[in-house]
Specification:
Elements (H helix, E strand, L loop, with lengths): L3 E2 L2 H23 L4 E7 L3 H16 L3 E7 L5 H12 L6 E4 L9 H5 L13 H8 L8 H14 L6 E5 L6 H10 L3 E5 L6 H6 L3 E4 L17 E4 L3 E4 L8 E4 L4 H5 L4 E2 L7 H19 L11
Parallel strand pairs: 1-11, 2-3, 2-4, 5-6, 5-7, 7-8, 8-11
Antiparallel strand pairs: 9-10
Helix pairs in contact: 1-10, 2-10, 6-7, 6-10
Length: 300
């Protein structure tokens, strides 16, 4: 068996196209332009690249992009004051504080200072609670992207056995909640799970989000299962030359692809969906703020 490749790059392009269509209608019918504010503290290279990409795709979708770049030694008081200002700005519908923050800043305090209705990352404790109790919330972008791809591939997820490997607040836990919401039978596996290979082997859907390169191998996978690989890990690639590296997921792609029915590659799988879903969340937040119908197909 050779797995069908779930092309996240192409799927993300479709999502961005839908977002742009909703943005155009909001402008034409209501005179509203969704706005996304991104706050970057410090000069972490990876964060800078990510923020640039977010800003570029926000503008390409027809939305307003507001970037706030602060020095690494910015005080907590000043950062919270900026967030408070963005919370009350009617032109800003989504707020994202890029993580990680410098060590002197309390990430939980900062995230929970964002207006939950504008928390397009879905990390605020209120949104976590709403998601966990099956109520309308802002949903974390990466799990939302995974859910969209699974729905597109399977249609209905009802009754399927799903194993989520990893219990992070950013991916693992919200992913499990979303799968429960679509009536899957869900197991969260982690570093202390006994017989994790056997637990995973029973799954119709495997979502690997553990942060360990190529941990999941083909003999963990049930024949025909769908594998969603959230991991992005950089490893040495001596075959490319001295000092060279390459990106791999949490799954050993080659061996898993021989057994699975469908699989996301790394790169080009889940990664592109994260920013696409950030844009989708911003449009959703804008619609909710203005009492308008939510965009169909862009929310959980």
């Amino acid at each position: 068996m050779t797995a069908q490749i779930i092309d996240g790059k192409a799927f993300a392009a479709t999502v961005r196209e839908k977002v742009a269509g909703h943005v155009a209608r909001l402008k034409e019918e209501h005179g509203i332009i969704p706005g996304l504010a991104v706050v970057l503290v410090g000069e972490d290279p990876a964060s800078q690249v990510y923020v640039r990409s977010k800003g570029k795709q926000t503008v390409e979708a027809g939305m307003n992009s507001y970037e706030h770049k602060l020095d690494a030694d910015t005080s907590e008081e000043d950062l919270l004051a900026l967030i408070d200002k963005l919370n009350t700005d009617p032109a800003v519908h989504g707020i994202l504080v890029q993580l990680p923050l410098p060590g002197h800043l309390n990430e939980d305090l900062v995230i929970n200072s964002i207006d939950p209705a504008k928390d397009v990352d879905g990390f605020h404790i209120s949104n976590v609670g709403l998601l966990g109790t099956g109520q309308k919330s802002m949903v974390p972008c990466t799990p939302l992207g995974c859910l969209m791809m699974l729905r597109d591939h399977h249609g209905s997820l009802s009754g399927l056995n799903a194993v989520v490997i990893g219990r992070s607040n950013i991916v693992g836990k919200p992913m499990a909640q979303l799968l429960l919401g679509d009536s899957c039978t869900v197991t969260i596996a982690h570093s202390r799970t006994k017989d994790i290979e056997e637990v995973t082997r029973r799954a119709d859907i495997v979502v690997a989000a553990v942060g360990r390169p190529q941990m999941v191998t083909g003999d963990w996978i049930k024949p025909g299962a769908t594998v969603i690989d959230v991991g992005i890990n950089r490893i040495d690639a001596p075959e490319k030359g001295e000092g060279k590296t390459r990106l791999v997921g949490d799954c050993d792609y080659d061996s898993c692809a021989e057994v699975a029915g469908a699989i996301t590659p790394v790169p080009g799988g889940v990664g592109p969906m994260t920013i696409a879903c950030l844009l989708a969340n911003t449009v959703t937040a804008c619609c909710r703020a203005n009492g308008l119908s939510e965009p169909e197909g862009l929310t959980a």
